[in-house]
Amino acid sequence: MSDQHLQQPFLQQPFLETADLLYQSADRLASQLHYAAQAITHTLTAGGKVLCAGQAEAHGLARQAAQWLVHGTSDRPRPPLAALALAQDPSDLVAQVRALGHPGDIWLAFSLERDEPGLAAATEAAREQDLTIVAFTGETALVLGPMLRDTDVWVPIPGAQPSRLMSVAWLALHGLCEAVDTQLLGEVA
To answer: Which CATH number is 113's domain given?
Structure first.
């Protein structure tokens, strides 16, 4: 019993720190997620698609984004949306962007602020093909930030540790996909 009592503060600390980060950044994060949802909804209703990418653990975010965009986040039925998670292999990423991306499509990129040369190169290729970039990055935005234009959307994920960025990005991604569904289907009655 005493072991459990000693471990509780240690186990609670990451939750409390993440909750504090979310509380402090909720307005800014919600605002950027709104802009990202508008960009994605506009692209999809105009016949475009969303190409999702991330390297290492962030590739899981890209796969989940495509899954939620295709199938939705709720039980409300809707047609599948045109979204695709691209390869994790950095050497394939640029080729896939060039083969599949068209002007007006969305490049939904997830960066955990690590050494991500494949993601950076693919983002540059997306820019060259005039895709709108929606970038989920840490607040420093060292990898993708320098490539963003005024017409792109930056979703700054609070925190510095990759594990914290990953957990908050997962929550933000779910919010983004719910916002897309709400813009397409209206508010839940």
So the answer is: 3.40.50.10490
- pLDDT averaged over 10-residue windows placed end to end, the chain, 189 residues: 63 80 85 97 98 95 97 87 92 94 97 92 96 95 93 93 90 96 86
Considering its fold, how many domains does the chain have in total? 1
Residue 100 inside a domain? The answer is yes
Q: Which domain holds residue 154?
A: 27-185
Q: C-alpha angle 11/16/20, rounded to 5°?
A: 160
The pair of three-digit structure tokens given for residue 184, joined into one six-digit string: 């397409």
18 domain-assigned: no
Q: Of 80, 104, 107, 83, which Cα lies nearest the Cα of 93? A: 107
Tokens of 33: 């997620």
Using a cut of 0.85, tell me whether the model's pTM lies above it: yes
Q: Are 109 and 54 in contact (CB under 8 A)?
A: yes
Instruction: Please report the pLDDT score of residue 20 as a whole number.
Output: 81
**8 inside domain:** no
